[in-house]
Design a protein that fits this description.
globular, EC 2.5.1.129, Rossmann fold, alpha/beta, Flavin prenyltransferase UbiX, UbiX-like
Length: 200
């Protein structure tokens, strides 16, 4: 895949625990100069408030405060805006990442349910043959979760569970978050220095 900065990525943040993953992914993509189309579910906003302590009463304002000044451009799309650009297959992007991905969103994508912008954008990736990466964040997993992941994996969806490694000697929670973000960037062939690779 030829990655250039001319086309952007769609990033989804759901209500699964681990909102920091999606935030760090967005920061890194923007820092690398990529346009980012960001969709956050209502439950995702709740988790951002609870886990990160953000004041989410002014959603666009807090995003501008957090991501303003980075090299890439950020476009926030409300979850109910089913007519947004990313809902159409004619709008070209490099792909989509849902990080973290709740089991509810994963189930909707696996079963072709696209009643909000996030699941519609994911459906567009599938129908257009574009890369779709899901970062499931749940434990323990039951058979329905696993069957939905297998179904999507067989369709070419990349599953990158939020399972940070320890071989690179993480010294902080941030190191472990960056490892997962780095694995997502690896899946698109994007160079980064977020963790020390085995053998380096």
């Amino acid at each position: 895949m030829n990655i250039t900065n001319s086309k952007g990525f769609v990033v989804g943040i759901t209500g699964a625990s681990g909102a920091v993953y999606g935030v760090r992914l967005t920061e890194n993509l923007l820092s690398l100069g990529f346009p980012v189309h960001l969709v956050i579910s209502n439950a995702g906003w709740r988790v951002i408030k609870e886990e990160l302590g953000w004041d989410v009463t002014d959603r666009e304002g807090v995003l501008n405060q957090r991501f303003g000044g980075l090299q890439g451009t950020l476009e926030y799309h409300p979850i109910a805006d089913i007519g947004a650009s990313i809902a159409s297959g004619s709008f070209r992007t490099h792909g989509m990442i849902i990080m973290p991905c709740s089991m509810g969103t994963l189930s909707a994508v696996a079963n072709g349910s696209s009643d909000n912008l996030m699941t519609r954008a994911a459906d567009v990736m599938l129908k257009e043959g574009r890369p779709l990466v899901l970062v499931p964040r749940e434990t323990p997993l039951h058979a329905i979760h696993l069957e939905n992941m297998l179904k999507l994996s067989r369709l070419g969806v990349r599953m990158i569970p939020a399972m940070p490694a320890f071989y690179f000697g993480p010294q902080s929670l941030e190191d472990m978050v960056d490892f997962m973000v780095g694995k997502v960037l690896d899946s698109f062939g994007i160079d980064h220095a977020l963790f020390r690779r085995w053998g380096e």
